[in-house]
Amino acid sequence: MGTTWEQIETQAMTYIKNDLSLDWDMANRLPVYYNRMAGYMRAAIPKFNRPPAMLSKLKQYTAPLFDDFNYTAPATLPAPASIQTGKPGYELCAAGLAATDSYGNPSYTPLTVTNYDSATGEVSIAEGVAEGQTIAFDFYRSGSFAEILNDTEADILAYCIYNVWEHRFDNDAIERQSKIRDSSFTTISEASQTDAGTRRQKEVDSQLFAMMRAYEQNLEYFRVTTGSAAF
To answer: For the chain, how many structural domains are there in total?
Structure first.
């Protein structure tokens, strides 16, 4: 097995700052976090196109696998509780109480998973469950590349993920729509906000290109001076 996707996705968080939703999922629903990051990874892989051979190298991978399952307790389960989910074959499992408040807003309260049996799909949690409560289970199995990425390749791919994340608001209609203003309330100019975001994205694009170009030059220098394509 080569470099895992999770290694790169975790490294990308050194560039991604103050994304509260991602941070919360990383701390409380790790399978959901990695599933979200897998979407960024799929979009990031084509961006790592220099040297061109990287595209072929990164196309060879085993994709991660995500699944979920909701269980509604037919009777009260005393703590600790064991539940058969019918979801074997995964590596990570998270659980939480899923509910809605009086206004219909969904809520999620993390539970402590003490054991997940990947052979049977049985999950043990430290807490008890009352009759009628619903537990949301999330499952994840690691993805990996066919080859091992060196440190430079891993860092550039992590930056590619950050590049995709940085462009996530490109089509945000609310950011660009004119807002109501009066003497008691004002908002930032939509044009200024869009221009600032565009400048930032161009800086990130430029930095990514510079990282790939430098790596490409180093590989060629190493090949010429040592006669080896390995770096």
So the answer is: 2
Longest dimension (CA), the chain: 72
> Helix, strand, or coil here: 221?
helix
Q: Tell me which DSSP letter residue 47 carries.
A: G
The alpha helices in the chain, defined as continuous H runs, are 5-12, 20-28, 30-44, 53-59, 151-166, 173-176, 190-226
pTM value is 0.86
pLDDT of 184 over the 70 cut = no
Q: By the 8 A CB rule, do 73 and 135 touch?
A: yes
* 53 and 167 assigned to the same domain: yes
Q: Which residues contact 125 (CB under 8 A, 6 or more apart)?
A: 79, 80, 81, 82, 83, 95, 111, 112, 113, 114, 135
